[in-house]
Amino acid sequence: MHTVRRMHTVAPPAVALGSVPMHRLGEAVVTVVGADDEPIANADVTITQIRHDFAFGNTGFDVGDGEDLTGEWQLTAAEAELWLQIHNAATLPFYWGRFEPTRGAPRTAEMRRTAQWLRQRGVALKGHPLVWHTVTAPWLLDLDLDEIERAQRERIRRDVADFAGLVDTWDAINETVIMPVFDNGDNGITRLAKDRGRLAMLRLAFDEARETNPNAVLLVNDFDLSPAYERVIEEMMDAGIRPDAIGLQTHMHQGYRGEDEILEVADRFARFGLPLHFTETTLLSGDLMPPEIDDLNDYQVDHWPSTPEGEARQADEIERHYRSLVSHPAVEAVTYWGFSDRGMWLGAPGGLVRADGTPKPSFDALRRLIADEWWVTPTTVRTDSVGRVTLSGFRGEYAVSVAGQPAVPLRLGRDLLAETIRVSPAGP
């Protein structure tokens, strides 16, 4: 039996866990009492961390025990176990052209199997994306504009409803800066965007998803991190279309942008007062893409290997990148875009494990950060003379137990938490 009360006026003291910034820490004061409500001194209290609040994500395109969602390959059981060691969030591929290549026959069952496999292992899920002008359903080209719009609205309502409670975070719309002018062959969504305009596409995406699942977390997401993207967000918010978070892509095939540039980006977009999600991060462990390439899709090579020198560089850069993002108070999530070199976008050597499934130094670097430096290992401490102990750690979910008693769930968040654990007469 236990009771919980929150104290909103007490700021956490200046304590730190390893190199975790202060704004990532939570604290709780736990008081252990007996059945008579008298404090118990010198009681052993064990705290075990269960989950980070911060989302450390990766793609979930090829994870699970169902049919793969890429149509090509799937992580081995050993690779999936490595994936789970450092990730608590996954992005699932709802690209319309692959999810519903034949009208009326979406791959809902396959996606649900993968989603359930991940959720059973404590992984939070995001769907990507509901509206995008690339990888669109080919059959849209057979429709007129009104029919395309109707199909797009129906698609959003169907998928958000079908996965509510399982997938409750969505990239509602992807890459709107170029959407109305994008030229990559004919497709139904570009046609619709050119006719209706950017703002109408934003409203369509957010209104349909919000009405279908009012509890969903909806993102606007883009690779264009220039002021043009800021203007898009300003326009949509002025029009009453408010995302729950801002998605920022950082594919760095041409080299690491450095902490200063990444933090400058975070500062600019933090002015909107919304959480920032770094949704798509790539850093290479082989040769870098030439700097003169404008559209990354234009770079095509037959063989792009990972190299020892590149792997050392990638490990250094990925640690610096994650440390800088965790240091920024507006950032709540970072998703690395791919796990194995076998399935990386553009065939680039950007995975955290090699094509043969062995971990790269970048994987080891992230595991040290996420599962060691930023993690509270099971720790036992003793209560003081009035039965109290103060617990501090990276914000997230914990379990607290007193010897011989069932564990009590505890969440360390922004506010100081005061919790009383009442033990039975058989307890300490």
Automatic annotation (TrEMBL):
Domain of life according to the entry: Bacteria
SMART domains in the cross-refs: Glyco_10 (SM00633)
Keywords: Carbohydrate metabolism, Glycosidase, Hydrolase, Polysaccharide degradation, Signal, Xylan degradation
The EC number(s) this enzyme carries: 3.2.1.8
Broad EC category: hydrolase
Pfam families reported for this sequence: Glyco_hydro_10
Stored SUPFAM superfamilies: (Trans)glycosidases (SSF51445)
Annotated InterPro entries: GH (IPR017853), GH10 (IPR044846), GH10_dom (IPR001000)
Residue ranges of every copy of the GH10 domain listed in the record: 40-369
Reactions performed catalytically: Endohydrolysis of (1->4)-beta-D-xylosidic linkages in xylans
PANTHER family: BETA-XYLANASE, GLYCOSYL HYDROLASE
Family, per entry: Belongs to the glycosyl hydrolase 10 (cellulase F) family.
Name of this protein: Beta-xylanase
UniProt source species: Microbacterium invictum
